[in-house]
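Narrative of activities, Objective 1.

The group set out to show that a structural description can be obtained from nothing but a protein's sequence at a throughput compatible with the screening campaign. Below is one input-output pair from the validation batch, recorded exactly as produced.
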Amino acid sequence: MKEIENWELKENPTGETYRQLIKILCDHSDKFYFITRKELNYNKNIIQLFVPYILEVFQTKEWANTKTLGPPANVYMVSANEATCQLLQQLANTLYDWVSPHLPEDLTFIKNNFPWFTSTTHEQFAQFSIRSQYYKNIICEQSNLKIERIS
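Output recorded for this entry:
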């Protein structure tokens, strides 16, 4: 592929479709992140579950699909592995469950420092950014995943 193709999720993946999506994302990513915002409440016990796998935590006013005029968000960069995959699968039943006050927000999955799946969960928006036929095949083979090319 010569250019990046963007594919938008057209439907919130739920149940088994959500768990399959998370498995695919974890299996084909090095790391992922989620964010918390100072002005919102989160279940601190949930974040503690990820502490052994956190690669770094930093603050920013800009992350995938989002720029904030308010206080910076905390970004939790987490290793994508079997344990974190299971946590992501067990803590939610849909992708857009990842919102305050129960869960952190905006799951984003990264391979080779390229964010290939991004979400803005409170706006119920998510997309794949695909730059190889291999990754295109992975997402297009998921018959339960409702996606549409947007570029």
